[in-house]
Design a protein that fits this description.
Blueprint lengths: L1 H18 L4 H8 L3 H8 L7 H11 L3 H5 L11 E3 L2 E3 L1 H4 L3 H4 L9
Length: 108
């Protein structure tokens, strides 16, 4: 299950990078990360820390919610980032549509 989530996140990151017209090298430089790490993230081979996610979002000039907006809530593990807390779907599955616009999510 976790590998599926990492792969899905990788696709989100890849799509965001392509939309911004950035190469992996340019994104890595802007986020102060290694290009090979960007590649591993995009292929779902690494689990990024919150600080890494923030660096990527700043480099892409997007919010965390914009980066995650294509992730499906039915992936089995939905992450909701709030401050320094990371919550799983066991809590948010019940209320996420009341908090976030439903156009961003697929409900099982």
């Amino acid at each position: 299950m976790a590998k599926d989530n990492l792969a899905q996140f990788g696709r989100c990151l890849h799509n965001a990078r392509i939309q911004k017209g950035l190469s992996q090298e340019r994104l890595a430089e802007a986020a102060n990360l290694d290009r090979t790490y960007i590649s591993l993230l995009e292929r779902g081979k690494r689990n990024p820390s919150l600080l890494c996610l923030i660096s990527l979002c700043r480099a892409l000039n997007i919010s965390l919610s914009e980066l995650f907006n294509t992730m499906s809530i039915n992936s089995g593990l939905f992450w909701f980032l709030c401050g320094n807390e990371v919550y799983t779907d066991s809590f948010f599955r019940k209320i996420v549509l009341k908090v976030l616009p439903d156009k961003h999510f697929t409900i099982p």
